[in-house]
Amino acid sequence: MIELEHISHRYRRRRSLVDISCEFDSGLWGLLGPNGAGKSTLLSILATLREPESGHFRVNGVDVSDDVNTIRSMVGFLPQRFSLPLHFRIRRAVEYAAWARGVEPRECCVRAGAALDRVGLVDRADDRVQSLSGGMRQRLGIACAIVGDPAVLLLDEPTSALDPEWVGEVLALLRRVAAERQTMLIVTHEMQFAREVADRILFMDEGRIVEQGPPAAIFETPRDPRLQAFLRRVG
Fold it and tell me: Model pTM?
């Protein structure tokens, strides 16, 4: 459960989030909206990589202003653009991600092996990062996000840079991963995935929440003209 109360954020002179108050309960949430809507900013605040200009949020009852380290231990994050040292062995990259998330050093190897197994890369554990294709690097990124076994998983456009032949593979992986998480938020432009897999959809525009609800309501009977225009553009 994520609870946001009056979250606002400003980037330079532009307000990127405007008084966001909502709750994300268990299940998979698809975050939709045009570029610049504030989706990535929202995820980075929930991942504690940015501080809001005002407002606060709680994860499973823990307020970020009281215990940010506990929040970080409960949240896994895969940004839209991420990089890993190309010379690292794949297992080492995931072990490092586990250590960075606060996993006890003696447990990092075991956690890394389990995460690689979940994403289907355990047989490549001793290869170097640079040997992976685009789709496999996204799988590695997901392994790094889930290695701490977080209750909440935040994924920002996990298929945006992929060639078409890899998109289906990564989306199928996300379907499996979603079943293991309490709450999962995915920023996506993959409308079929949002329609078929998401439990609920949240549509944002100009830093505000415009409409939210189950996929059937969002896609079949959109009420707000901005959502209607967005769905016409993306098909």
Answer: 0.88
